[in-house]
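User: Teach me something about this protein's shape.
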Amino acid sequence: MPTYEYECRQCGHRFEAYHPATELVEACEQCSGEVRRVFHPVGIIFKGSGFHATDYAPKDGNESRSKSDHGEKSDDKKEASPE
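Assistant: First, the predicted structure itself:
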């Protein structure tokens, strides 16, 4: 069963409740006022190869090519032109 955090709308008291997802807490432990569930952001960690290359790659098309691509294309032009 998960643990949920609640906050009272009247007195501001925060508390945790351990219960199934199908049940709800309707009253504050201290003042019996109305409560709301507090949501927290979920941490995300990207692991593995490729995330840096795809997320932080240069946006300019000329810079995104590798040096070997530039070398191969310039060699192709040299071979095609007669000397």
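Now, about its shape. The beta strands are 3-8, 14-18, 35-38. The two ends are 79 Å apart (CA to CA). If you'd like, I can walk through any region in more detail.
User: That's plenty for now, thanks!
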